[in-house]
Amino acid sequence: MTMILQVKQVSKSFGERDILKEITFDIRNGEKIGLVGWNGAGKTTLMKLLMGSIQPDSGSITKFPGSLKIGYLPQSTDYTIKMDEEMSEEGNSILRMTSELGLDKSISSEGSSYETLSGGERLKLALAKIWAQSPQFLCLDEPTNHMDMKGVNWLISELEKFNGAAIIISHDRFFLDKTVSKIYEIEDSMLVEYEGNYTAYRQEKQRRLDQQERDYGKQQRKIKRIEDQVANLKQWSEKAHREAGKRDNPSEQKQMGLKEFERVKAKKKDNQIKSKTKRLELELSKHKVEKPKEEVQIKFEFEAEGKRGKRILEAKGLTKQYGERVVFGKSHFYVKHAERIGLIGENGAGKTTFVKMLLDQETITKGSLWKSGSLKVAYLSQDVNDLPMGKTTMEYLDLIGWERVSKARTIFANMGMKEEKLTKPLSTLSLGEKTRVKLVHMIMQEYDVLILDEPTNHLDLPSREQMEETLSTFNGTLIVISHDRYFIEKLCGKLLVIEDKKIKRVETGLKEYEEKKMKQVSSSVKETREQRVVLEARITELLGKISMVSKDSEEYSAMDEELFKLMQLKRELA
Questions:
Q1: Looking at residue 143, what DSSP letter applies?
Q2: Rounded distance, CA 475 to CA 465, Å?
Q3: Burial class for 191, CB neighbours closer than 10 Å (0-12, 13-18, 19+)
């Protein structure tokens, strides 16, 4: 494969903080690379360096050719598209792609500012514009944030067809597994390369860590053995020096030979100590194994009190509409205590609306939605900017008692949030930090139902995985809205699916549900093909017969009417 970009010994600092240290790598045409690491590790910085929007402190970044056409999707999706006569061809491509993405908002030919679009819709529009420009190299920073599964599957398909190279920052493990064949991890300002997709990277990283732990343990045992030998030699040497240093007197004259022997022995021990110490220092300078860095364990601790009985939630004929527009209607379903339910549906299907109905923030149009009156519900919304921005983190938590304050501080420390952040106004925190604040606030409450609306937005990969592990031990009820496919697959054994303007309960997880759905689609396609074959045969038969019949006859009229109906049905099947 042809090299399109070369990075040599690149370093970048902001103030006294080193972000990247002497990193080197090549990108070849056709390669799809995932860029991972903790939030703040330097992923976006590296992407901006590749784009040329910021410059390295040292080292070089060379593009081949120098005019390499780059398609860049930043984290922000606040875009405006204007399509005039000069870019009508690109505009048509954008319209086609937004249709494939499921974006049904009209795009004006005079241009438009898209304040009315949601974050997910703006993201789709931005991606469509990038594709319409036919780039040679893609730099995508969180391309699936806020995107529904239809959009994610479209992007996976487009990346498979894309012949150029791509570097992708993403916290969506399913997306990375399906799109990349190499992972670059930024950790401690260094870049480490792994072959394979995200799952292969996690397995290889664990294997390297296990090997490092074994090598480190082996080396530490060897160091201990040599240090014990040196300590013994020192004791023997000190004793020999004492024996050799006793004052000469008449009674000791006879022992002159012995004293000389002790001197020689002491000198020999000193040389052995120097030799062993020098050998150990030389070995450590050449083959020292560093102590493995322990991955930060982010502990999410949940408490749920009491048993609430079997059914805690039940809908009968549930309907929600705004004027003439029906969001969902005539829906029947239930949720049991301790179930983990994934709430899925395309963008705009009504997931957040349903959650608001659960929280009594939206009215029910028709039907009923029964909830156990004793439920304690915690809700994590998509909007992290609904916090009281003037307060500090600890003021917002409003904890009483040293033990609870200490617990909250420990959780923040485990999540990599520095102590000084806790005393700064919430308005100064990043989106990821605000998410952490909301999560800790929930952790400190007692509840038995947890509603999570896109809980992994703004969380890096290690945080997502640790959150999954802990939520899997939560003994209350979970209702989860997430576009993170792996998050839903790992946690949720049941689904509430909003489809065809109805909410229905599904007794399987996401993977099994989609496999069953694909079989149904395949069966339907097969059935449609068979129907078309029968139709075409009958149409051919009628066309042959009608040409032999008088146009004025009743037989002709009957055949003509049947032909019309069959042709109409054929168009519908097509």
A1: T
A2: 18
A3: buried
The pair of three-digit structure tokens given for residue 336, joined into one six-digit string: 């049991």
Q: Please, which residues have CB within 8 angstroms of residue 77's CB and are 6 or more apart in sequence?
A: 119, 122, 123, 125, 126, 146
pLDDT tens-digit map of 431-467: 778 877 887 888 787 777 889 888 887 777 877 777 7
Is residue 28 within 8 A of residue 4, CB to CB? The reply is yes
Residue 293: CB atoms within 10 Å: 10
What pLDDT is stored for residue 218 in this prediction?
A: 85
Contacts of 136 (CB under 8 A, 6+ apart): 4, 29, 68, 69, 70, 164, 165
Distance, CA of 37 to CA of 168 (rounded, Å): 12
Comparing 422 with 381, which gets the higher pLDDT?
422
List of residues 6+ apart from 125 with CB closer than 8 A: 77, 79, 81, 94, 98, 103, 107, 114, 117
- For residue 269, the model assigns a pLDDT of 66
User: Which secondary structure element, helix H or strand E, spans residue 142, and what is its range?
Assistant: none
What percent of the chain stands above pLDDT 90?
29
Q: Which of 214, 175, 197, 418 is nearest to 296 (CA)?
A: 418
Given this model, what pLDDT does residue 318 score? 94
Rounded distance between C-alpha atoms, residue 126 and residue 526, angstroms: 37
**Average pLDDT for 315-324:** 92
Residues 6+ apart with CB under 8 A from 207: none
The model carries a pTM of: 0.60
Dist. CA 509–CA 492, nearest whole Å: 6
Question: What phi and psi values does residue 315 have, to the nearest 5 degrees?
Answer: -110, 135
Q: Interior CA angle at 197 toward 193 and 198, to 5°?
A: 85
N residues, the chain: 574
Q: What percent of the chain has pLDDT over 70?
A: 81
- Please tell me the chain's helix, strand, coil percentages from 3-state DSSP, rounded to the nearest 5: 45, 20, 30
